[in-house]
Write a structure and sequence with these properties.
- The protein is α+β, with helices and mostly antiparallel strands.
- The protein has a single domain, classed as 2-Layer Sandwich (Conserved Hypothetical Protein Mth637, Chain: A), CATH 3.30.1200.
- 24% of the residues lie in helices and 30% in strands.
- It has a 5-stranded mixed beta sheet, covered by helices on one side.
- β4 and β5 form a beta hairpin.
């Protein structure tokens, strides 16, 4: 799935990352400042075709071209997930799994 397929349409018919994030967080009112979501991610470094795939269970599979050397794969993974979700890179942090392939990410709504 590409980012465009996951976006929601606004009343004006435009794709909006903010609307996507609002709906993804189960929005039914204004978002509080401290709302976040955790997501499980499995990272495959050294991929010839970098991409993000959302699995049917809500987890993500992220393929990155960088090697797992000095955090390069983690940096590329965070950039890829941020771009896929349409959120700033600063809204995503690794909670667990800094040196493992399976990671737990925190994604802030704001």
């Amino acid at each position: 799935m590409t980012p465009g397929e996951k976006r929601f349409e606004t009343a004006a018919g435009r794709s909006s990352p903010a609307v996507f994030i609002y709906a993804w967080f189960g929005g039914n009112g204004a978002l509080p400042e401290d709302i976040f979501r955790t997501v499980s991610v499995k990272v495959t470094p050294g991929s010839s075709k970098p991409r993000v795939e959302e699995q049917s269970d809500g987890t993500f599979r992220v393929y990155v071209s960088a090697s797992p050397d000095k955090g390069k794969a983690n940096s590329e993974m965070l950039r890829s997930v941020a771009k896929y979700l349409g959120v700033p890179r600063s809204a995503i942090a690794i909670i667990r799994g800094h040196t493992a392939r399976e990671k737990l990410l925190r994604i802030d709504a704001h």
